[in-house]
Protein 1
Amino acid sequence: MKPSLRLLGTDLDRTLLPNGVQPESPQARPLFRQLCAQAGLTLAYVSGRDKDLVQRAIYSYSLPQPDFVISDVGTNIYDLRNGDWQLLSDWHELIAQDWKGHNHEQLCQLFSPVRALRLQEYSKQNTYKLSYYFSLQDDQEQLDSQLSDLLEQRGVAASLVWSVDEPAAIGLLDVLPRHADKYHALHYLRRLLDLPVESILYAGDSGNDLPLLISSVPSVLVANAHSSVRDKAREMAAIAGHSERLLLARGLGQMNGNYSAGILEGVAHFFPAAAQQVLGHA
């Protein structure tokens, strides 16, 4: 017997939000809202956006109100179950240990000789998140090695999360405490709720979703994801021995697998009982 879906975690931009170049199936978002209204289902938005931008997305795209928001690529976690945005300070105490006493300004200075990096806007930074732009023509592997060496010299435990803003055709880099990415934040939330891994579904589309997409968490990569992300997810999941936990959405019925249609396809694949309640009416 397949487990029940208890926690649905989804990225926002170009996963739930139809703000990429590919078309959205018109019936998908209304069906997603129906899905999230099911009793016993906890909804978490897991995004690189900050709190204000997440709020704007919820309003602009008529999204269901979540129970939790993991924002800023995993550096902040908010509990919304009582109607307000309660920041979970225990999470900050945990991830702060990785910085080894260094602050945001000191790490910016550490990376200042790396000319290929351009610091993103002030609004996209926070205490535990350094965000940069880089050119897609730059050698990402060489940059990764250079930055990792600088961090190792200072004893800083960090994750370098690389992704691409496809509409803007520019590379994005987030430097985070090692335990502050989407993967560790979602597992922190899972432990907080005392849920087994098998009761979770995660949906994503980009490089900063890969740690979850290739893990033991049942996951779906939406069909509009870039082909390079699709290839890398398939390869890395196979190496990790988790191929059966990753679905590459391709379309289901009259839906094309893009954005929320891909999320619903993931629900249908891993949690058919939950999907039947909404897709039975599609």
Protein 2
Amino acid sequence: MGNVIRVQHLNYTYPEAKQQALTDVSFDVSKGEWLAIIGHNGSGKSTLAKNLNGLLAPESGTVQVAGMTLSEETVWDIRAKVGIVFQNPDNQFVGATVADDVVFGLENRGVPRPEMIKRVDEALDRVGMTAFADREPARLSGGQKQRVAIAGIVAQRPEIIILDESTSMLDPAGRQEVLGVIRELKDELGLTVLSITHDIDEAAEAHRIILLNDGKINEIGTPSEIFSHGMELLRLGLDVPYSEKLKDALAQRGIAMPKDYMDNERLVDYLWTLHSTM
């Protein structure tokens, strides 16, 4: 598939800052891909997300989305292609009810009312929130609030969804709930997903991972390639997958462990096989 996003030599510096927030960042994203962008706090993840849809203007370099180069002339067309789900859903709510909130973006775009009603109903159904259409958003759980935020984006029918630390305020159950919705929507609608996160488990959902460090790309690779660095990720201010922590602990006790990355399921299979040969 072709590239839906192309970033070339992107640089950005915040006003009055002494150091660049992004330095010579270049990467492509294929249509339908799930790309995770990870890094420690302050590594430039959210700054990069905001440069992709014109919330921030690049200092230099180019950003292309769906074949359009980001500029003052194209920024609104690009924003129609890109939806962002932010960290705190309460900051995105504007409606008195769930349905009112989902319809808000469509009203701003002048979508005819019959089409609006159809899109709101479809979006709420897709995220499993139809029964909550008349509820106040403030009375929902964290996972439910993020589902509503996602519905508001899906109703606008973007090609790309950016999750900007969207699960960081949720408990593990809520996190899995939201990621499950995103997986289903991606497969059903053919969406491209960019996940801006410091959560290793969320990053493991991706096809590829960009590892950012102090505004620069440290590495681009598959989850297996990135996580194979194991405990070295701690030096970059990141967590390490549980399976890698367990491998390291077992290796320190003299048990022979493979160097390549294993998710939990593969590690269980390996340990079971190892146990059966002892």
